[in-house]
Design a protein that fits this description.
The protein is mostly helical. Helix content is 78%, strand content 0%.
């Protein structure tokens, strides 16, 4: 039997959407500059303060899939589900900042991580990051627009396509002219609204459903695994893969890098610490709706776990609160969609046009035009993809693997002077190739082959834990932790990890890329001078002024007639 959802009228739905997107558009007008600065358009010239940066980071990390997935996890794995999802995701924000500080130290004027890698290695390595981010951000846009279409179709008479179009056009409207400035300013308002609504909605659902006593009675519905906070199934099927995947996302994704390069350099640590707490609190809280549904015996409509949150909202909230829930979903997807648009524009402006097409001599006005055209094209692509029946999971997994394969080469390139461009390129290619073989079961994961991949994955586990330890405690601790973790994992994974394909594939991407990168780098005797990076990466607007001054000084001067 299908669930019956509360629905707004068409007029009410359009008014709610107009309220949200109209309000964000007016906010964007407040930060619009008549004569836009290209560096400000991309990263606010690296001068964003603590509060705005922390809020923007948190809002961007919380996208439409976050709380849907958190609720699904709690419904599937019980007590530990939402905690594992929110906690590991939050920790990934925390683990970014030590490496982020190094990135900013090397390239204080950078706009993209690819720009730093270009200064370190050249075009091929940079374009690997650029391509992965174009794919990832395009898919993210598709997911967020799809979420908008779904919630509009469920809660109103409007169709799925109407919801997709409104979300796409609305997000583009307030992001197009002011770029990153509009994105981060609206992120602040969206996060405030999102947290406020979450604080109201969760207790409201709890008490409308009967309060703590009713929930306690539902504990008998839990299986032994669902009742166990340290559930092995929850950790291996969700916690560990998510932990590994999000680290890759954090290092490789331009939406995160863009906020890293935008915040004042001395505020990186407090910004990321605050965002860690904010993300964890909101996502774990929203995930509790899934646990409540499990305890109440709610069956997801059509067997789709993504329907749990709208079902709970429609069943236990009054119309006014359903309206707030509707705005919560729209705010979460828009905060990530606008980040994707600004990320894509920065990549095309910097990594493609400035560094590869005009070889470091860009025209700022043309860059702004390219950035805005990119946003328009990206929105159209996202809308088209959202209307297609594509396997989103497969695409996301593949892009995530690409980012997993770049984590060690990127970090090593910023600390180890012997890493070469060929080492970087072949490491990523090898990591992606072996990941593909595992994830899509192109080879039989048994016998010698299975054991081989388990050992590569063990190296990957050592790399993940070693890098995290290195970021906070230095090289010696990182190496020791990494070696010990790899050895312990090798003993534990043997004959075991092939049963957990997602985790095996993700760790394989890390392990393979690391092995190849280290091997090829040790074969080189080159020693890179890291001081060259800051010299090669400059603010475009200032560089343009310098070029104009040089040209003016070189121009022949008119002499007075005798």
């Amino acid at each position: 039997m299908e669930a019956t959802y509360y629905q707004f009228t068409t007029t009410t739905t359009l008014l709610l959407l107009l309220l949200f997107y109209g309000g964000t558009f007016l906010m964007s007008l407040l930060v619009r500059h008549k004569k836009e600065n290209v560096d400000g358009y991309m990263v606010s010239s690296g001068k964003v303060g603590f509060g705005i940066s922390a809020a923007s980071m948190t809002a961007t990390w919380i996208w439409a899939a976050s709380f849907y997935a958190a609720a699904s996890s709690a419904y599937t794995y019980g007590l530990s589900g939402a905690i594992h999802y929110g906690f590991w995701g939050a920790l990934m924000i925390l683990f970014i900042y030590p490496f982020g500080q190094r990135f900013r130290q090397l390239a204080p004027n950078a706009h993209t991580l690819g720009e730093l890698i270009h200064a370190r290695h050249g075009s091929s390595s940079q374009l690997i990051l650029a391509v992965s981010n174009v794919l990832g951000s395009s898919i993210s846009l598709m997911v967020n627009f799809t979420a908008a279409g779904a919630v509009v179709a469920i809660l109103s008479p409007l169709s799925f396509v109407h919801g997709v179009l409104i979300a796409g056009i609305g997000t583009l409207a307030y992001t197009l002219w002011s770029g990153f400035r509009a994105s981060i300013l609206t992120d602040v308002a969206q996060l405030i609204a999102l947290m406020g609504v979450a604080v109201i909605i969760i207790p409201w659902v709890l008490f409308s459903a009967g309060g703590p006593d009713v929930m306690a009675q539902g504990l008998e519905r839990l299986t032994a695994e669902q009742a166990n906070f340290f559930s092995t199934e929850a950790i291996l099927n969700q916690g560990a893969p998510f932990f590994v995947a999000v680290l890759a996302y954090a290092i490789g994704n331009q939406t995160i890098a863009q906020r890293l390069f935008a915040v004042r350099q001395d505020l990186i640590k407090p910004t990321f610490l605050t965002a860690t707490v904010g993300y964890g609190a909101v996502v774990i809280g929203l995930g509790m709706l899934g646990l409540m549904a499990l305890l109440l015996g709610v069956q997801p409509d059509g067997g789709d776990l993504n329907n749990i949150i709208p079902q709970m909202a429609s069943t236990y909230l009054p119309p006014f609160m359903i309206g707030l829930f509707f705005l919560l979903v729209v705010a979460s997807l828009s905060s990530t969609a606008d980040a994707d648009l600004t990320a894509l524009s920065a990549i095309m402006m910097t990594d493609v046009y400035a560094k590869n097409i005009v070889k470091g001599r860009p025209e700022p006005r043309k860059m702004l035009l390219i950035g805005r055209v990119t946003m328009i094209v990206a929105t159209m692509v996202g809308l088209i993809l959202a209307s297609l029946a594509l396997d989103i999971l497969v695409m996301l997994v593949f892009v995530g693997a690409l980012w997993g394969a770049v984590v060690f080469p990127v970090i090593a390139s910023c600390y180890w002077p012997r890493v070469t461009n060929s080492a970087f390129t072949w490491a990523v290619a090898g990591g992606v190739l072996l990941f593909t073989a595992v994830r899509f079961e192109l080879l039989p994961m048994e016998g010698v082959i299975g054991f081989f991949f388990e050992m590569v994955a063990a190296v990957g586990a050592g790399v993940v834990l070693g890098l995290m330890s290195f970021g906070f405690f230095g090289r010696l601790v990182g190496v020791v932790v990494g070696v010990i973790a790899a050895l312990v994992s090798a003993w534990y994974f043997a004959g075991f990890l092939t049963d957990y394909t997602v985790l095996l594939a993700s760790l394989t991407a890390y392990g393979a890329s690391t092995i190849i990168c280290v091997a090829l780098s040790l074969m080189s005797r080159e020693e890179f001078d890291f001081d060259l990076i800051s010299q090669r990466v400059q603010l475009f607007q200032e560089a343009d002024k310098t070029q104009a001054q040089v040209a003016g000084a070189a121009a022949p001067q008119a002499t007075p007639a005798e």
